[in-house]
Amino acid sequence: MGQLFGTLQELRYTQSLPPELWQQCWSFLVAEDLLIVSSTCRSFRFICKNLLFKHITTTIPYKRTVRHIFQPRHDDVARIARGHRLLSRLHDLQSASGAREVLGLVETWSIRTFGSPATLEDTEIMQYEKACFPFVEPSISIFLILPSCRNLRVLSISDIHMEEERWSALVKIPQLECLNMERCNLSSTDKAMKLKVVSITYETHRDPPPIPPPTTQLISSLFNSRHLEKLTLLDLTFSNSFLLGLVRVGQFENLMHLSVVVPETHIDTLFAFLSRTPSLTSLTISNFSTMAKPSKPVLQSVIPNLVAYDGFPTLIPILFPGRPVSAVCLRMNHRTDPQASLGDPFGVYDNNVVCKALDDCSASTRVVHDLMLSPFHPTPDSMQDIVRIHPNLRHLRLDILRTPNINIGVDVEEPMSLIMDMLADTVQVWNSDNFSLHPVFLISGFLNWIANGHLPLPAKLETLHLHYYQKSVTVCGDAAKQRLLVPKISAAYPALHEIEMGSTRWWREGDRWSHEVLTRTQL
């Protein structure tokens, strides 16, 4: 690497390619490597500067109590030191000669706290100078800097108490289009914003934030009906307040994407809001919702342009007829218990519900070409239902249920030994090709079943993604065995050009299949 950099320092090499191409090359490097490259020559320093400051992540090492600041425990010493270093850097961004140029390069900024998002009591702060608080000052200073970022378009905030002073700073950011807030306490404000993308996530209901529900003024200020294009509302504590407030705001003519958590008692409120979103094309119903059917008939004039649905099968007979839905994600862990509380992970899964849901999808005015099932119980019958009902699928994703589905209907003539094997997650089927046994509920066994004709796929399928249900990372190793199975699957399904199994991806160019280990986390 040192020899390469030494060669690149020569003037004829750095000037032989345009800066845009060098920027594309260095864009694949992490921040540490970019710093090394930037020290090789002036040209690379200029190029890397744009990349280094294009996306910024700031972590505030927050601590709630004064005792931990002036009588720190051993683990708090390093955190306090980080807080002082961060405060020093923020002051440099405010006062240094080149700060304005650097801030002008920022397009995405992520701000989060490490620790409790709760604020210190005013009585505690008044006893000491603010300069002694390395956890309070950075969260104040950083919001004073944001209005100077003239090209900042995406801002993500986590675990921050959004007071009036901070709202005022956000309003002054000239190009801000996207605001993501996770676990933030939202106080009221009358500062109107012109955001195209808004995401509010607070996926906890056990420890609700100690603030009142969002006011109508806050909702109308945050969600601009003329500019909003994409909205994500996954606030389990105040989801009902947000829905009721959105209905009162008015018509959202440009809203195209909506992701929302819906309490059972507010399903009518959801459809009242949907009637005000004529341009909506994508609707996602969160897993934390408790589904029910609306009390009134839903007109076909409501969301007439819907093309993508991600949610529970309960709403398919209502949303699909007369609408051009072609991409479907079915959440089969829907709640049927009316006593289930919002956010309760308990769900019901039944193979008959899957088959009916697949059949109901055919009511769409378009042929479904993209399908996801989560969770999915891998049996020959369930796969045959997919092929029979939707033979024209191009893309299929399955979140495999590793443990057997206890709600599956059991044939009275089925051997008890097989039922016990299912409950032990060790169902095995004899493979006549190599006289070996393969587990049904493992992705490796699922792939083997497909290769040997035990499980069918749609004939026109182009991509197949397999993951384990509710697993943050799905690791499927043993590339040697997969290398034998993939060509057999390809021969049976010639349109298939990509198979992804969690951390493993196979993709085809022409007749050759290539193997890739994915480094990103599979969600």
Offer a few descriptive terms.
about 525 residues, 20 helices, 16-stranded mixed sheet, single chain, 20 strands, alpha/beta
Number of beta strands = 20
Strand percent estimate: 15-25%
Query: Rg, please?
Result: 27 Å
Proportion in helices = 25-40%
The biggest beta sheet reads: 16 strands, mixed
Structural shape:
flat
Overall mean pLDDT stands at: 75
Terminal Cα span:
34 Å
Structural class, by secondary structure, is alpha/beta
SS summary, helix count: 20
Largest sheet strand order? 1-2-3-5-7-8-9-10-11-12-13-14-17-18-19-20
Contiguous runs where pLDDT drops below 50 for at least 5 residues: 1-6, 63-71, 116-136, 336-348, 405-440
Pfam families: F-box-like
InterPro entries: F-box-like_dom_sf, F-box_dom, LRR_dom_sf
Domain F-box: 17-57
Organism: Suillus placidus
Write the layout of secondary structure elements.
Blueprint: H1 2-8, H2 11-14, H3 19-26, H4 31-38, H5 42-52, E1 55-60, H6 67-70, H7 74-95, H8 99-103, E2 108-113, H9 122-125, H10 137-145, E3 154-158, E4 161-162, H11 164-171, E5 178-182, E6 185-186, E7 197-202, H12 216-222, E8 230-235, H13 239-249, E9 257-260, H14 267-274, E10 282-285, E11 308-311, H15 316-319, E12 327-331, H16 351-360, E13 370-376, H17 380-389, E14 395-400, H18 416-423, E15 428-431, E16 436-439, H19 443-451, E17 463-468, H20 479-492, E18 498-501, E19 504-509, E20 512-517
Parallel strand pairs: 1-2, 2-3, 3-5, 4-6, 5-7, 7-8, 8-9, 9-10, 10-11, 11-12, 12-13, 13-14, 14-17, 17-18
Antiparallel strand pairs: 15-16, 18-19, 19-20
Helix pairs in contact: 3-5, 4-5, 7-10, 13-14, 16-17, 19-20
Domain F-box: 17-57
Protein name: F-box domain-containing protein
Pfam families: F-box-like
